């Protein structure tokens, strides 16, 4: 878990009806304490008890924000706010207030269809950098019923921006490659071979690295877990093992860290039929699929000549976890290998938790407790960062 972080959420206008409940609840779920400041117009729409009940803390009436609340806040998220308020928050008289806050102030402006946003773009260009950051709609809209469509970043994007503002940027400037999810190996237009991976562990790694300031590329198969809408995560969707190999090999040399978390199919059908294969009535009811090995991506990076990133592999095992993991670390030439016993309850596929043991190249072993996949991701990134530092120093 994060050590307790506090955020001040400023809300203005009709966005209080669509953004505030999902934002407050998702921030609380991440262990963040939320203090909500509503403007007069937001209070008119939802009443004073709405955010008090949601956040569990007394309402603050904007603009009367007590200094103690500013001093206690690790970041401010103004989401959503009208064009007029977004401009006001950038004016000089608010700068002294923002200096009291420990971290950044993220402003999420919202435009009604009749507003063109020209003014805010001018303000934005003259207030780049510093404590104030902007999260623009970038084509996203929220349906406000009879009011029409509001141009504003979605609650999910606001959450990613808030968590990034609250997290120490110890991966800033680092390029991180992650593979995630299963692969799907087609053998006719409707049928394919795959596995039970959902991609959740890989997505957690991508998300935690992005919150810490990394520039993340996630090469993923067909996942049932969505890639979070974070500006620092570039998704590269692929379908099969060969496509994952090609996508990874095209960018791996530029990376500082590569974590290969995908459950890549080990075998792929030798033949692909362009038409749907019929049930063969003239056979004895047996259908055979001839398959061949797929390229091993982790092994190829580990044995590539020239510079390669700090390399982390995963191993899902069902028996002899320690022996297989140690052997895999050596044979695939990784810097670190994260092993989990997929037969243990709360560990492995399609659950929110994982129990991982980390094997390092120097022979040391770190056994992590069973935790949420996001907490496991945090710990894996901590250990990798330490290893990367040590490698750079040698
Ligand atoms: O040999 P095994 O499949 O158990 O190794 C697992 C590790 O190797 C994982 O990190 C997985 O992402 C990676 N791998 C790969 N390409 C394959 C098979 C596995 O990168 N074709």
Write a structural description:
- The protein is of the alpha/beta class and 394 residues long.
- It has two domains: 5-166, 3-Layer(aba) Sandwich (Rossmann fold); 175-393, Rossmann fold (3-Layer(aba) Sandwich).
- The chain contains 14 helices and 22 strands.
- The protein has helices at 15-18, 20-29, 40-46, 49-55, 67-72, 83-89, 92-100, 118-126, 155-166, 200-211, 241-251, 297-302, 321-331, 373-393; strands spanning 5-11, 32-38, 60-61, 75-82, 105-110, 132-134, 141-143, 149-151, 175-180, 185-186, 192-193, 215-220, 233-237, 257-260, 267-269, 291-293, 310-317, 336-341, 353-354, 356-360, 365-367, 371-372.
- The strands form six sheets. It has an eight-stranded mixed beta sheet with strand order 13-12-9-14-17-18-20-21, sandwiched between helices. The protein has a six-stranded parallel beta sheet with strand order 3-2-1-4-5-6. Strands 7-8 form a two-stranded antiparallel sheet.
- A hairpin with a 4-residue loop joins strand 20 (356-360) and strand 21.
- Helix 2 runs parallel beside helix 9 (155-166) and helix 10 (200-211) crosses helix 14 (373-393).
- The protein is globular, with a radius of gyration of 24 Å.
- Residues 179, 241, 260-262, 264, 266, 294, 296-298, 313-315, 328 line the site of cytidine-5'-monophosphate.
Briefly characterize the structure.
With 394 residues, the chain is of the alpha/beta class.
